[in-house]
Design a protein that fits this description.
6 helices, Urate Oxidase, 259 residues, homotetramer, alpha+beta
């Protein structure tokens, strides 16, 4: 059977990334409390393609997923990229794995437990000269507007927001610890289950801790920098404003990607 | 050229709806202030198909869109469904047209003007015995929690929400008037452009008008019923809770669809 | 602490559904081959609210999720609704649970294995007089156009499509069996991993089995009716047409919901 | 009234981007055939914020939108960014405007006319040292697999795909011309309205012009490079594979961003 992909191409154009996108797969990741967690992932996998080849063999990328999905831990993730390079005979490999991650949280006063979802992402990029591994984490939060509180005789507008960090991997860390740090940088964290005593606590605490999106990204940046293990990271905060139908947004970058 | 769709089918199964979905088209609708408004629509169009025909001629549905898109007013909308019935030789026709509709609003204190978007929908269903035309309108709002305000020593959690109404058409009305009614039923309306004096006004007004989703749907229901021109309608309210990562939701139906 | 929700309401408007929407939770469901499967769910839970109460206690809905998420099987699902009724002191309860479900499939010629995702849904509605439980299943498929094949000298346009069924529960069945039935009703099933010999097989098989969306919904309807355990069901098919930027769509209902 | 945003901040962290996101606004753009086109936009606008200021004045960004939305042409777009810089007293300004753009197309044989939607984007970035303006255009296409055609005795799998280009602006061009170029690089273009004679033509033409995603990005790259007015551009192609439930994807970059 003819291998059309292997034929030569005359157009002299190298393809930077070619592969599969939006592959849905069940995966297993590390969990600080329960050792492992079963979740579901959306996966993109790419390799480069030299100018002289007509096409790539995409089924090999799925074969790599098949081999690695039972252990998508930080430690194992970059092995997956090496495997792509060897299997595709490519110089570069790129993988993006996005998944919901669940943590059990306790309500602040009642102590009642429930699960909270955090969307996470592993992003890797490997070639002969560099190996980059980024971890993305999205954390829903609550923010109360400092300006509204200052100028109003009563109340202050507040809203749900979301903080997203993208961390260049230096050494192993727990996603749970980063989530704690982010939640503590907001006016309040959010919960799935709250009783009335918790609602009172959260309302008052948020009122006492007003934050612009600007404050949130700076607070998170300061604390992430203090950990000292990330060569580079970005922090973004988006408020789903309760007085507008659009979002307020802020974005910071820190460190050096090319270290 | 053989007409495959016209061939007969032996399976004896009538198809309730068959047609085209997610057709994107520019449309022109009526505007209370500016006479007409150019916007873009997502359109679904279906007809029924008797058990003895193999297929329908979907291109005819697009020909109908082509004829009507320059005037998708309430008055003209149902003509489009009649045209589908005659063109498809069908007993029933269904059309769903969804579009963003823009209205210029003034900020409450500064008077500054900006445009607000409201997602609207025209839904029609016609056969030999009935003609139903529904108008859907979605209005972003702000709600402040009565419980949080009552139990907390300071502040009260509030958030963006959205109210959706679906109105069975009785006689002509302006979308603008329904939007006004809904915005006035919330803790506060939301705006695209607000200066600080407006923010103070809105913050305090929302604090003075706490509303659960239950309150919002009841308030809107009461006022819509008072207008007296809708044989049937539904009202739903969804709060993007600022203390949770999920929504609070309420839904009411009123009147009689079969009148 | 005052219970604001428990206060009375004078507007005399009963709320049909009130509750929580878009709750993300990890769940465990039954799996024909592996006994159980860990997945993630999007959950909506509602109860009715009599006209004389101001608000509902939404946190109790999350407490019910907390109790049931480790076993969302068909057998256990309706118990969750009974629990909501008793816990909320409501006459009616509604639950919608949507989740991706994974099945390992073998490629038709090479026999290579990979996981396929199917989006499923459990929908329940309970009051004093009726208990309705619906199972929704979405199956990606491939369809090849009979008209295009018939009129063209070479080739035939084909595309990915999706079939959705909603089945009124009568007695226990396996989701896996319904998926098989649907996949066999299309021009071809789709796979995550295919080698060249599989691609040849699928291409030729689809060419030999042309199907309109009308054919697909009729074929699925006929086979579901033959199983004889569903009092009512609906079948829809949507083609992401390769010659258009919109979809072709067909929808059938069968049986009697009120049995 | 206190200006909280103007207060000083001690954390010594510069914010790269701060502003508003997901602002929905009606806009007017240039149209090659009809001079102007009314459409609707999703707008993000950001400025930088020096480390010593607590917050930014986001309402000023909406005031800029208000001034420019009636003429978002390529010629006028960058003026909007200059206005942001002066109005916010910022060194940098960023604007992203995304909008559907409609063009009337003729079916290839019947000549029947209908409207096609193309999602476009204007992206601008300005500071003291550089002015970058990118135009993004997304074009739905149809692709037929060369491998499937080669190895199969009959038929060939094909599917809808989408090509996205991002062009660094050098000198004025018409969006219409780029869309033509892209549509001609696919196995076939797609249409909103086709009669049977058109369907035959398109089916056969696609069969005669098989293309991998790799072929499509190379073909588009080659032609865009030949135009010679873009200092840099990227081309991506995504196939919504008809034999898989995931996409095939390819991405190329060309030229030099820093010229």
């Amino acid at each position: 059977m003819l291998d059309v992909q292997k034929q030569s191409d005359e157009r002299n154009i190298e393809i930077k990334k070619v592969g599969v996108k939006n592959v849905q797969y069940p995966i297993v990741v590390l969990d600080k409390k329960n050792h492992t967690q079963h979740t579901v992932a959306n996966i993109n996998m790419y390799a480069d393609l030299p100018h002289n080849f007509k096409g790539t063999h995409m089924s090999r990328l799925i074969e790599v997923v098949n081999e690695y999905y039972v252990d998508i831990s930080m430690k194992n993730f970059m092995n997956m990229l090496d495997k792509i390079r060897s299997s595709m005979k490519a110089r570069k490999a790129y993988v993006e794995v996005s998944f919901p991650y669940f943590i059990e949280k306790e309500a602040p006063v009642s102590g009642m437990k429930s699960m909270m979802e955090y969307n996470c992402q592993y992003l890797g990029e490997v070639d002969d000269y560099k190996r980059k591994f980024y971890v993305g984490i999205k954390v829903p939060i609550s923010t109360l507007c400092p300006c509204s509180r200052e100028i109003s005789d009563r109340g202050a507008h507040n809203q749900r927001g979301i903080v997203g960090v993208k961390l260049l991997f230096g050494s192993f860390f727990w996603i749970e610890d980063i989530i704690d740090l982010i939640e503590d940088s907001a006016s309040s964290e959010v919960f799935t289950l709250l009783k009335r005593e918790d609602e009172k606590y959260i309302t008052e605490r948020a009122y006492d801790r007003p934050r612009f999106v600007e404050d949130v990204v700076r607070e998170v940046t300061q604390r992430l920098a203090q950990i000292g293990i990330f060569p580079w990271f970005s922090v973004e905060a988006e408020n789903f404003e309760s007085i507008h139908n659009h979002s307020a947004y802020a974005y910071v970058e820190w460190g050096n990607k090319e270290t």
